[in-house]
Automatic annotation (TrEMBL):
NCBIfam families documented for this protein: PRK00823.1-2
Enzyme nomenclature, EC number: 4.2.1.96
Naturally occurring in which organism (per UniProt): Exiguobacterium profundum
One GO MF term: 4-alpha-hydroxytetrahydrobiopterin dehydratase activity
SUPFAM superfamilies: PCD-like (SSF55248)
Name assigned to this protein: Putative pterin-4-alpha-carbinolamine dehydratase
Amino acid sequence: MVLSQSELTEELSRLNGWEEVNGEIQKTYRLETFPEAIQFVHLVADLAESLDHHPNILIEYRNVTLTVSTHDEGGITEKDITLAKGCEELV
């Protein structure tokens, strides 16, 4: 079920740096080196596979931008929040 705006606002207030962008949630992680950025992406991939919920990933040198929404639900759901929380635990 798609989160209401108030539910989303509450969830995002607990997630450092995550924000709503065009109906999705997004964060850019800035790693120390390119190899660390790639290692982080591998960890995110493992997490996403375990949750069967996959983000869009943009790698720009040391910056990794994750963008998440639940396409089959048509918006942002608890699945997206769970993935975002898991990513926060990886860094």
